[in-house]
Amino acid sequence: MPEGPYGRLEATRVRYDLAIIGSGGAAFAAAIAARRRNASVVMIERGTVGGTCVNTGCVPSKALLAAAKARHGTLTAGRFPGIHATAASVTFGDLIAGKDALVEAMRADKYVDLAAEYGWPIVAGTARFAFTPDGPVLEVALNRGGRTSIEAQHYLVATGSAPWAPPIDGLADVGYLTSTTAMELDTLPESMIVVGGNAVGLEKAQMFARLGTSVTVVEALDRLAPFEEPEASAVIEAVFREEGSSYTPPPKPLPRGEASMGQFSRCAAATATTPSCGPSGYWWLPAAGRSPPN
């Protein structure tokens, strides 16, 4: 047998109609479509089954947003005559544990059990392409140890994306959160600077602000939600200010389509020495987009 990056491959090689690297929404959609045509399918996943939506995206973020909305509703109930309501501080670790339990249940129901129902295996391991005289194969280093080789008529790479941190001078040195790790903390931050005023940044900013964090949003363009209509941006900015979050526009806004990371850097550099963009003792949360995973 040929040598691969993980050493000598096992003597047995399994062949499928379709081999999929990744186990998120796109991977599952392709696998289900193939199985409905009676094609044999195998899926390789090096991390947690389910991809972004159930593990680190839609499901956990919307669960925490709902909790934050409930607390905010309690805190603002006093606007009605005769209503007296208070909200104690958030036990953030318990909130995160509840989110984790929900994610685990939905992962099992919507992904792991679904794969079993449609009848394809999920191999836990890291896949690499290798080329042989007979064509390409996948060499897989199994998470439990050992190696295997998978051959298929068709291959699909569906590994999704990961949070991207803009190249702000000094950011790596001070450390920062991402849209993923922010939902894994066991203590609620006292203050936070969110870099990026689009959907993910605004979602995280409002969530943490409603839970009790002092939040500042920094956006490179001249308004929040800069790719939406100006009227929508104005409403969003008004809501954020009404709820106590601050918005820091760039020092010199550029026309749409001409923004550069230097605008982030100017605000970041000022904040590194004097917290002009937000309160001291803050956490950084870049939310400026996503990129292919490493």
Helices and strands, with pairings:
Blueprint (H helix, E strand, L loop, with lengths): L2 E2 L2 E2 L4 E9 L3 H11 L5 E5 L5 H5 L2 H18 L16 H27 L3 E11 L2 E8 L4 E11 L4 E2 L7 H4 L16 E5 L3 H13 L2 E5 L11 H13 L3 E3 L12 H13 L9 E4 L3 E2 L3
Parallel strand pairs: 3-4, 3-7, 4-5, 9-10, 9-12, 10-11
Antiparallel strand pairs: 1-2, 5-6, 6-7, 8-13
Helix pairs in contact: 3-4, 3-6
Please provide a written account of the structure:
The protein has 294 residues and is an alpha/beta fold. The chain has 2 domains: 114 residues, FAD/NAD(P)-binding domain, CATH 3.50.50.60; 129 residues, 3-Layer(bba) Sandwich (FAD/NAD(P)-binding domain), CATH 3.50.50.60. Helix content is 35%, strand content 23%. The strands form 4 sheets. It has a 5-stranded mixed barrel. The longest helix is centred in the middle third of the chain and has 27 residues. 32% of the residues are buried.
Indicate how many domains the architecture comprises: 2
- By CATH, the architecture of the largest domain is named 3-Layer(bba) Sandwich
At the fold tier of CATH, the topology name of the largest domain is FAD/NAD(P)-binding domain
The total count of strands amounts to 13
- Radius of gyration, in Å, reads 23 Å
Strand content: 15-25%
Largest sheet: 5 strands, mixed, barrel
* Low-pLDDT ranges: 1-11, 252-280
Distance between the termini: 29 Å
Mean pLDDT: 84
Shape: elongated
CATH superfamily of the largest domain: FAD/NAD(P)-binding domain
Task: Bin the helical content.
Answer: 25-40%
